[in-house]
Amino acid sequence: MVTVLSINPTGHLRVCGLPAPTCRYGTSHRCPARVKRPRRDQTFASSGRASACSASLTTTQGPPTGRVHDGEGAANVRIGILTGGGDVPGLNPCIKAVVNRVHEEGHQVTGIRRGWGGLVGTNPDDPESVAANLLELDPSVVRTVDRTGGTFLHSSRTNPAKVRPRDVPDFLADQVSGEGPHDLTPHVLRVIEAAGIDVLIPIGGDDTLSYGLRMHKEGVPTIAIPKTMDNDVNGTDYCIGFSTAITRGVQFMHNLRTSTGSHERIAVVELFGRYSGETSLITAYLSGADRALIPEVPFDIDRVCELLLADKAKNPSNYAMVAISEGATLAGGDMMLSGEADAYGHRKLGGIGQVTGELIKERTGEDIVYQQVGYLMRSGSPDSLDLMVATNYAVMAADLALDGSTGRMVALRNGSYSSVPISVTGEGVKGVDVGELYDARNYRPKVRHVRGKPMFLY
């Protein structure tokens, strides 16, 4: 049972009481327009922020831009940005583009280190804690970050709504009780308020964005950016990191052909993909692998052996290749899991490829080449498509935030940049359309038709 942290109510976010159109953001929200920013030399603990929308705030004359102005120019809005979950190529360019866009409009960006963990670990009454977890970002800070992969803000799998007792910061230890996990959301809200963050931009997969949805429900203006190699976030055709992962997977499959063919073996290549097999399926589709085993369709090992032996016999070089998702399962079996569940309830996946290879060898007598691609798919710099999408998602997210169009997730839908309600992230993961893209009897990609489909087929 989750216990909820209790803190002084004054630490909670204040709610704007002015109705639209007096305040263009409506009611029951945390209004970026109403805030008088603290001076740079003020500490978070004594920011002296205003508690209601200023009656003097108006929008610009002429065609509405959505930017909010006061008598002295644009109201000062602060964006908080974080990266959560596994890293993917394209995160640093995305952060850089958000910072540059926001600063072009005369506003500020706070980088939050280690995902949601940075907010959990911040003590707003301790300047050292603040400095360790929150970073002022401007164009000079992010000038070169896009030249490397990963995320310079770092990442974590922290879920503030389910914090294990051993992970509760020392300064909060006397405010929780029981075995946990503990819901530290009230503390997170206090940190957001104290840091002067008006809009949050979390970049992550379905787990990270699920807490972004929680922030939205708590009244924090939030714009989500989807990223995951699995490409399984609902509401968008594309997530940052997917193209580079596929590019690396295809290259790996082709490179492995030389050794597999030279020794006349069967190669079993394990790829990322917990609940969605798109990474494995598209890698197999583009690399010409003989078979693809995905989480959506449990596989019969005897049937797989039969097919791979036939594939090997037909190949002039006498070898066969099968791609397998880490979340794939044997018919009647379970996922290969190990270790303790993380804050989102997931245990470490991996090993199904090795088990499958051993079963194939046992049943066929064929020698096996087993390779787990793993972190090679998420390492290094992004390809051009991920760089393009990451940059454009960032620009769109910044514009939505400054326009006040929050509670959204940026997306690609039918080839066009768009946005969808952030609530779609709570509808589960997006899986492979087996009927359209997969031959479930023969365990291979089978695209029924292409016309009218999005770039990555669904």
Task: Describe what you observe in this structure.
- Helix content is 29%, strand content 17%.
- The chain has 458 residues and is α/β, with parallel strands linked by helices.
- A 7-stranded mixed sheet has the order 7-6-5-9-10-17-18, sandwiched between helices.
- The model is unreliable at 4-30, 32-74 and 341-348 (pLDDT under 50).
- Pathway: Carbohydrate degradation; glycolysis; D-glyceraldehyde 3-phosphate and glycerone phosphate from D-glucose: step 3/4.
- Pfam families: PFK.
- Residues 45-56 have a biased composition (Low complexity).
- Residues 78-400 form the Phosphofructokinase domain.
Number of domains as seen in the coordinates:
2
What amount of the residues lies in strands?
Answer: 15-25%
Overall 3D geometry? elongated
Low-confidence residue ranges: 4-30, 32-74, 341-348
Give the termini distance in whole angstroms.
38 Å
Q: Mean pLDDT, as a whole number? A: 83
**CATH architectural grouping of the largest domain:** 3-Layer(aba) Sandwich
- Give the biggest sheet: 7 strands, mixed
CA radius of gyration: 24 Å
Strand line-up of the largest beta sheet: 7-6-5-9-10-17-18
The count of strands amounts to 20
